[in-house]
Records
---
Amino acid sequence: MSNHLFDAIRTAAPGDAPFIRTAEGRTWTYNNALALSGRIASAIDTLGVRPGDRVAVQVDKSAEALILYLACVRSGAIYLPLNTAYTLAELDYFFGNAEPRLVVVSSVMRESVETIARPHGAVVETLNADGTGSLLDLAKDERDDFVDASRSADDLAAILYTSGTTGRSKGAMLTHDNLLSNALTLRDYWRVTADDRLIHALPIFHTHGLFVATNVTLLAGASMFLLPKFDPDEILSLMPKATMMMGVPTFYVRLLHNPRLNRDTASNMRLFISGSAPLLAETHIEFKSRTGHAILERYGMTETNMNTSNPYEGERIAGTVGFPLPGVTVRVTDPATGTELTAEETGMIEVKGPNVFKGYWRMPEKTAAEFTSDGFFISGDLGKIDGQGYVHIVGRSKDLVISGGYNIYPKEVEGEIDQLDGVAESAVIGVQHPDFGEAVTAIVVCKPDAVLDEKAILGALQDRLARYKQPKRIIFVEDLPRNTMGKVQKNVLRQKYSDLYATT
Ligand code: MLC
Ligand code: AMP
């Protein structure tokens, strides 16, 4: 039987070579990690999870959590990672929409998650940051030699939820080949080999930390230093032993604040990669002058995996996201007519290739709306391709805030604020922020005679929205600026409050 993604991972695995080195000093060899993935796959099977069933996972970062992802791939289950910041209210929606057979959370969350997962037909097991938990207890007695479920290139490997500009989050369906083809392309494009040691400080519930970082490492037979979270001192201490790092721009901004960052500390490093949000040209330039390394910026999306990358050899141009990856077609079209534009003209970025997802889970209309009739995915990003072929992202047509690499859709935050007593209406915008790139900021109009302050609104949002979606500031105004069509002019608000965080 063949399992499209896992067969490739197994073939690339270099036996007793290290795969993961944890912050606690434990080393997982490929053999040990694959053996545990077999035991977990058996445990999942014993729990009644069948190929095509969803396994929703909201756990802290650990080697065992990555191995659980591998176990799901082997067992044919669809892996559904969830941000650890999501509140119970948010989880309830995901469980209702995805109907997972199994939900895995940390032990402290078990009881509360059970109350919302059970009505949706899921069983709940646990996995903690230290690798303990009921799932691992079940796996202990299972055999290593699990017979992998047969999965073809087009079968689903994962569903990752992305927020929507209108309404609720959509589950992006990613196939075995979406993940495999993209990881193989990136491995070769970035020259990743078994000699590489990656600093992995990203969360593992998103494309960046889960697929780009982990699948590329696996398919190169390389190894990673798995850090629980971003910590600049820890990263600087690891650099002399590592060769690569992948991060969001906030990583690089924060590293630049650390006096230990210099050419010596970074001399063993081969490659620094940035993505998920725009890297300011000034960050690229400053990093180069401090370390001698030109950060390689690439561009991706949950729905498409990675689309473009600056070259490994050749010039990495600050403020660009490089060339379309081999096998990926990127074009720029007129957003109004869909006509393809020529070099240097700005329009909608559209993408086609084996990297592009299969559609949104149980949302055929939303899927159809985001593809052109000739099969290109409409990214919602505005950009241009210059005369040399480099892609530039110049803005977004989607109403989206990207804060520290996390996406926040204003509509969702506005929906929560507008429900509060005393609020007449609100507009949520992204305001330039020196650390997070953009900061979620709410502009609120109160009802006449309502007594509301910033603290009251933030307090009310506490249990409704994940922390990173909550506004960093609330501004009260009499009216929102509107155009002649009555639409709120968010560009006017963004301009007006552009200095709000200038001294943060
Ligand atoms: C944490 N907070 C954030 C935040 N992260 N607020 C806004 N935006 C964020 N990104 C909250 C915390 O809960 C905390 O709240 C306060 O802000 C300050 O926290 P911190 O200690 O400064 O944050 P930290 O834990 O250091 O996290 C910051 C970060 C992290 C940038 C390291 O957010 C991160 O790892 N981001 C990476 C996201 C990512 O992987 N994106 C990839 C998406 S895939 P308080 O007030 O309670 O203290 C994708 C496709 C592609 O986009 O192309 O890759
Ligand atoms: P997500 O939905 O979390 O996958 O976020 C995808 C979005 O992140 C893209 O549509 C872009 O808007 C943005 N993005 C990713 N990489 C970059 C980059 N290098 N520069 C600018 N924006 C980026």
---
Amino acid sequence: MACCQQIIGEPNPPEVVMEGEDKESAKRVGIIGTGNFGRALAKRLIFSGYDVIIGSRRPEYRQLSEYDECLCDVRLTTITECVRMCNVVFISVHVENFNDTFSPLGELFADKIVIDVSNRENISGKVSNSEYLMTFLPKAKIVKAFNIISAYVMENDIAGGSRKVFVAGNDVTARDVVCNIARDMGFAPVDFGGLASARRIEAFVLRLFPGWKVPIFFTFAIFNLWCLYITYIYFIDRTAYRWDQIFVKVLNKPLCMTAITLMALTYMPGCIAGFLQMVYGTKNKRFPKWMDYWLKSRKQLGIICFILVFAHVLISILLMSSTYYSSWFQSTAITIPGNLTTDLHLPMKTWMIWKGEAACLVGIIAFIFLCLLATTTLPSVGDSLNWREWRFVQSTLGYTVLFLSICHVMIMGVPGWVKNGFPKTFGSITFLCLILPVTVFIMKLILLLPCVNKYVSKIRKGWERNNHPCLPHSRCKDSKCFGDEYVALKLGGIRNECGCSEGSMSTNLRTPTCDCVV
Ligand code: NAP
């Protein structure tokens, strides 16, 4: 079999085949642009059973087989011919070249399904590339798709990367055609609706770890606060450590304290949400914005917590000795009898006492559970769980980890609290770092009380305390709405809702009353 591309000359144009004319033409697609993405797309489409025709500004100068021998049978022609021959055309050209390339070809693209794969450098412009393309090709059915797949992933299926293809376009049939092509290529199409969604799809590629900024900022803030406190109590208030221990031994303390604080902050919004829903008496009232954001940041907070715990475990293993964890080990002493007035006692630490062993055991179990929890945040693992399994891991296992972490800290701290008495206990780091986790745990226990749990579950299933449908922001008392008319007036200026006759209106918009005056 000859391994070379066919260059289709202008003088002998092949027949234009319309959609649905025969089976072969239905599987024919055109690609404009012979760049990295155009070639990768062509290769993938060929392997998916499509007949690919590539349109280039200078087909006679392009040797696609030089790039990849799989492309040797691909037909290469001019852009005009490519569009004429295909009803579905991929535009694999940079947005900067849309004007030059497509402004003279508006009519040629009439009724063609045009797939725009282009990306942007930044999200400053209001209009998407696809909407911009539509200004040159107003009669085409433009569909945004495939832009979130890189040329590398398109070519190398085993390379990993997202398999989702977001599809947006105003023509429903065109969208369906593109979704089917994506499926044939082994991708998972996600319908985003109209072409206006192309803005979101293009912005998706430009996002830089969305949702991470605030959790990282809070982590730094909490870590710094704990660092300051530890510096104060261990170096200023008393000299418990030497300054040269600051890099590992001392650092380990704010690390684990930040980790347990973040763990509490991961589970706290879920509890607060339960209480708020009880106060609202409905699940249909929106949480305040900060609360919404907090709920959405739980995954990030949990992952940061896992990273900190991991660092804490590594450092603790490194330091695990009676020199660093003296209170965890049995104290003994060698007595050398002296002929002098006093004997010489050499204190020695030997085996671990119950405190060290128990703290280690609980810490190890908590860490293993936390690893399981972190694994399920990976999309590939999370996708394999059903809803109940997911809930079990994220909620039951999560609270178990929180409980075990509290126990881990308490095992270390309580003997000291007992020894030092209460005023001193309040300032100990073990006591302080447990305040938030224990609060969250108590909140969860309250929510688990049968009567409370039943009430919250009822609300989450859609039950509302005030059955009377008051307008948002109006008050309900004894099944009556106060201020409904006022709210209606404010929201939409609907005078009739207020009962005011034609030509009259309410005088006082500040009070929830309906005083109609002419
Ligand atoms: P590229 O390697 O630079 O190729 C662009 C192609 O556009 C050129 O090979 C050229 O083919 C054609 N073209 C048409 N008019 C042009 C003009 N006036 N000036 C220059 N070239 C012109 O770019 P690419 O990486 O393939 O990307 C193509 C499109 O795919 C871009 O919009 C990009 O945002 C999008 N995309 C790329 C990737 C990726 O991983 N590369 C991923 C997703 C989306 P001829 O010379 O044969 O005409």
